[in-house]
Design goal:
The protein is mainly α.
């Protein structure tokens, strides 16, 4: 080996070169498989076994997201005061117990719509804590330069789960085997908790330094996070657009399975397969996102994904039985590709851009607004579906979603190639 070759600097390892990131990735991949099946199984059980209508389906979807409106902001401040990994482990353990409660009820043939609503609400509460800790935890495992690739791998796994698992969820609902699906989801949460417990990378003290008791009130910390978020033109512009899109998409998603089942006439297995195939769009978006950001720039990638994805939603209300199911498949596939690719760019930007001591509050503040629109949108979808019918409601909701991309033009993104990020990076232990 020549001296020149031996002196050549080695390329730093990618995200998979970090043992603890692999554990996080594996745990989330398993958990997402179970959850993706349940997202199809639970509403199908509500529609087919419990006779839920449009408004009840809106309530069921709203229940899962209502905690973001109720506790989203204080949870962000709380997680900035705590080490994130223990919070994530507790949340996964609680979620497992909730899924096992559905398992027992399904085995005893005692499942009710009320129990589904209560469990959805409590699962949503656990998810608020988990997501606040999770978003702020990844930068402890990876350097800033690898966050985009790390987020892409995590999102690829989530999107792959949306391909593999929905078909199983639909088939289980069709076969009347809800207990098996609920049990598998609970087990996936437990596996994720065990893998998280094996992570060895030490977390820095919350906020970057040890906090003195009473140093800052919770209300003051929440106010600081909100001020940083609303005062930054990049974060604010993206947030307004995402929240508006979520409002309309939540309404559409609350009606999707009801629309396919009752209006189009598809059975549970076909619905599961359609959602699974549409999930391939998310896989494609996750794979292409880092390359797209490098090729056109991160700011342009956000604009391209927002303006490119929305119009495809207008294919979905055209869905009919037989060959007409392709309208749903193409519309969902293309929308998923654009949404996932854009989300990876945005999340990676936020993780590198925000001060570490404020990341939990900023992330929860964003989710408070963005996810807080979901229960409102779900109820809107249920009300529109009841008043105008599923198909007419979907036309209104997907048209509204497509128009929301125009909100990005009111901020600084339209004049930039790339979103701003700090220039310095700090390597983390493997």
């Amino acid at each position: 080996m020549s001296a020149a070759t031996s002196a050549r600097p080695q390329k730093p390892p990618g995200p998979l070169g970090h043992r603890d990131f692999r554990l996080l990735w594996a745990g989330e991949s398993v958990s997402q498989l179970g959850s993706a099946a349940t997202r199809v199984l639970l509403p199908l059980i509500a529609v087919n076994a419990l006779g839920a209508g449009a408004f009840t389906m809106g309530l069921l979807n709203a229940a899962a997201w209502l905690p973001w409106l109720l506790i989203g902001l204080p949870v962000g401040a709380w997680t900035d005061r705590m080490r994130r990994r223990p919070v994530m482990i507790v949340c996964n353990t609680v979620s497992a117990a909730l899924m096992f409660s559905l398992t027992v009820a399904a085995w005893l043939d005692a499942l009710t719509t009320t129990q589904l609503l209560v469990v959805s609400l409590l699962l949503g509460t656990a998810d608020v804590f988990f997501r606040a800790a999770y978003s702020a935890y990844l930068p402890a495992l990876l350097p800033a330069g690898q966050l985009a690739d790390g987020n892409a791998r995590l999102q690829t796994s989530e999107s792959a789960a949306e391909v593999v698992a929905p078909g199983a969820g639909g088939a289980l609902a069709q076969a009347g085997s809800a207990a098996v699906g609920f049990f598998a989801d609970g087990l996936s949460f437990l596996i994720s908790a065990v893998l998280l417990a094996r992570i060895r990378t030490p977390e820095s003290p919350p906020g970057g330094e040890e906090r003195a008791p009473g140093k800052k009130t919770l209300l003051r910390e929440i106010r600081d996070g909100v001020a940083f978020l609303t005062g930054d033109p990049f974060l604010r512009t993206i947030l307004v657009c995402d929240a508006a899109m979520n409002l309309f998409l939540a309404g559409a998603q609350s009606l999707a399975i009801l629309f396919l089942s009752r209006t189009v006439g598809a059975d549970g297995t076909v619905i599961g397969v359609l959602i699974a195939l549409a999930g391939l769009g998310g896989v494609l978006g996750a794979v292409l996102s880092p390359r797209l950001a490098r090729r056109v720039g991160t700011a342009r990638a956000v604009l391209l994904c927002a303006f490119g994805a929305g119009p495809f939603g207008l294919l979905i209300p055209l869905t009919s039985d037989g060959v007409g199911l392709l309208a749903f498949l193409v519309g969902e596939f293309c929308m998923m590709a654009g949404i996932v690719a854009g989300n990876i760019v945005i999340v990676s930007f936020r993780q590198a851009y925000c001060p570490p001591e404020m990341l939990g509050r900023v992330s929860s503040g964003i989710r408070f607004v963005m996810y807080g629109t979901v229960p409102v949108g779900s109820l809107l979808g249920g009300a529109l579906g009841t008043a105008a019918g599923d198909r007419a409601a979907l036309w209104i909701l997907y048209a509204g979603n497509a128009l929301c991309a125009l909100l990005l033009l009111k901020g600084p993104l339209r004049t930039l190639r790339d979103l701003p990020v700090p220039e310095t990076e700090t390597e983390v232990p493997r």
